[in-house]
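step: validate -> pass
step: tokenize input -> pass
step: predict -> running
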Amino acid sequence: MGKIDDYIAANSLKPSSTLYHTNRNIEGTGKIRVLVPKSDGIARVEYKCPKCGHESYAEQGWKRPFSIKCAGCGTKIGVPKLKQQFKRDMKKGKA
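step: predict -> pass
step: emit ->
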């Protein structure tokens, strides 16, 4: 992983030049990072699947709610809303 960091450096992106940028943990073992520049509206995604551990990079059209299918096992990986994720973590005693 690190292609998004390389893209940011190569294009000198600033927070004001993005439509969306997030970096989230998913279900304890998974991760997803999404970057959508204003220039093209294409989502650049780095993820680690919480089910199989597969790590990958992909580009696809941006739309909300955003999700991507794991290339390893086919699991749908979504970007959880922060409020919903916080509530789940509170119930589990993690926050």
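step: describe -> The chain has one domain: 3-92.
step: cleanup -> pass
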